[in-house]
Amino acid sequence: MARARKIGNRLGRSLTPILKPVFRAVTRGRFETLPVAEPDAVRRLGRPGRAALGARFALVSWNVSKLRHRAWLANMTTVAAQADLVLLQEAMLHGDRAHEFHESSGFEWVMAQSFKYPGKAVTTGVKTGARAAALDCLMIRSLDREPLYESPKTLLATRYALHDHRGELLVINIHAMNFVSTRKFSRQLAQLVELMSPHAGPMIVAGDFNTWNARRQRLLTAAMAQFGLARAPVRPWNWRHFTLVLDHVFYRGLVLGQTRPMVEIRGSDHVPLWAEFTVPDA
Questions:
Q1: Predicted TM-score (pTM) of this structure
Q2: pLDDT (tens digit, 9 = 90+) per residue, 55-67?
Q3: Which of 34, 69, 208, 228 is the most exposed place for a label (fewest CB within 10 A)?
Q4: Are 53 and 252 in contact (CB under 8 A)?
Q5: Could you tell me the CA-to-CA distances from 44 to 22, 61, 79, 135, 161 in Å, in that order?
Q6: C-alpha span between 123 and 92 (Å, rounded)
Q7: Is residue 44 a contact partner of residue 108, using CB atoms and an 8 Å limit?
Q8: How far apart (Å, rounded) are the C-alpha atoms in residues 142 and 270?
Q9: Helices 214-226 and 182-196, axial angle in degrees (round to 10)
């Protein structure tokens, strides 16, 4: 299996220079990266019901695969009903107005728009929802872009007040670089570290890390260990990615409770990861 993966990686690298001009021609005008200074690159949608996260809260992290599944609304409703924090990758935003789901879910949704489809009011990126309003938020796009489609990946940091004045929780939602070299993957990890380093309190870092080889996993593990984050031991029966573990939830300054993969949700090629946390006494 490992040998086949190495051969596939080498084949992909050798074919990229050949296929890149072809894909550029086919997809020309299809995607447009939003400028970093674009004021609407980060959108806040919905109406949260709380000012702070509770002493116990549940999180779901899920790559929704651009909501292609026809049951996406039912899936999102199910996910949101079981969580207080929802971190989505490959999320979509259609138009300038919030979807009815944004308004009725009881969450505030912070959307970091990575790129858009020219001629259409449709953008994609990462989106973090919470039952409490974010104190602030910041997005960072990757310095490099994915081959063929020339699209960046995105980090979104949001900060929340915790129950009973127990500090502030930093939440970082990441969609990591995929079809690129380890060096470019490391450059995005460096951006992640830059976001993490100023925060001294509780922290969650979760998302689709695209850790499809041992080198990437080692780099990620080292970066998390540097700041004292542990990995929540939630691993799905990952038939959807040929046993590869791409999605992770890391945490610090919280007590981990139950965890589980939401294998009943079939609306993506990724399995949602559910984890419960308790805020320790001050």
A1: 0.85
A2: 999 999 999 988 7
A3: 228
A4: no
A5: 37, 19, 19, 12, 17
A6: 6
A7: yes
A8: 22
A9: 20
